[in-house]
UniProtKB/TrEMBL annotation:
It holds the Pfam family UDG. This is IclR family transcriptional regulator. It comes from the Bacteria. It comes from Aeromonas lusitana. Residues 28-185 form the Uracil-DNA glycosylase-like domain. InterPro entries: HI_0220.2, Uracil-DNA_glycosylase-like, Uracil-DNA_glycosylase-like_sf. Signal peptide: none annotated.
């Protein structure tokens, strides 16, 4: 086993916030040292918690369409690494899933990133990833951060969550599909080729 595999084994055994997880811990993370694309999302939902496979839901279907890749390519760990802000399902709140647990990113992200030396593009999906990684460079709203996507390149690309709940947002912001998704596909094709 290489160092990343050892770290992933430690992460998958993490019980740091077990008392706060309604379905118990089941950290979801994947990747390989050769990966060139990193996807940082929010936290697994109930379907992903059940399957243990990241983006194994309608949000993942839309994300794969945005990337222009099939499932086989998407789940090829040698090309794409996936690390959510919260590694386990955080539970349900009044208007959807709760925010990612605050322990995960500070505990694990830097350790993982040190072992992913070939990442050329990181997708920051949703406000939690954007605020964590862009810090003060993030704009006041997710819409404004995504609208200014070119300011964060070439290493970062902020995206809204591909959830079906965001269909109205996509309709209100046609520039996203016209500009950002076009750019995303142009970046991803050579990275994964």
């Amino acid at each position: 086993m290489n160092r990343l595999d050892v770290l992933f084994e430690q992460i998958r055994g993490c019980r740091l916030c077990e008392a706060h997880l309604p379905l118990g811990p089941r950290p979801v993370i994947r990747g390989a040292e050769s990966a060139r694309l990193l996807i940082i999302g929010q936290a697994p939902g109930t379907r992903v918690h059940a399957s243990g496979i990241p983006w194994d839901d309608p949000s993942g279907d839309r994300l794969r369409r945005w990337l222009g890749v099939d499932k086989e390519t998407f789940y090829d760990e040698s090309r794409i690494a996936i690390m959510p802000m919260g590694l386990c399902y955080p539970g349900r709140g009044k208007s959807g899933d709760l925010p990612p647990r605050p322990e995960c990113a500070p505990t694990w992200h830097d350790k993982v990133l040190m072992l992913l030396p070939n990442i050329e593009l990181t997708l920051l999906i949703g406000q939690y990833a954007q605020h964590h990684y862009l810090g003060k460079a993030a704009k006041g709203t997710l819409t404004e951060t995504v609208r200014h996507w070119a300011d964060y390149g070439p290493a970062w690309l902020p995206l809204p969550h591909p959830s079906p709940r965001n269909t109205l947002w996509l309709k209100k912001n046609p520039w996203f599909e016209q500009d950002v998704i076009l750019h995303l596909k142009q970046r991803v094709t050579p990275l994964l080729g």
